[in-house]
Amino acid sequence: xxxxxxxxxxxxxxxxxxxxxxxxxxxxxxxxxxxxxxxxxxxxxxxxxxxxxxxxxxxxxxxxxxxxxxxxxx
Length: 74
Prior knowledge:
single chain; 74 residues; mainly alpha; 0% strand; rod-shaped
């Protein structure tokens, strides 16, 4: 860390948010991958949305096929 004549920290000081500190305290590896290396993880919301869409599509096709009297595809 560098200090200027006024004793204030210079620009090379890394600022860390409270949420980043909490992430580090909870799981240092998660902090390293997510914050320091900026590696994206699969968002749970996106994963659940994809699963929900797959389920709805399957149910819709099954209902459509059985309404016509067809046997559902296996």
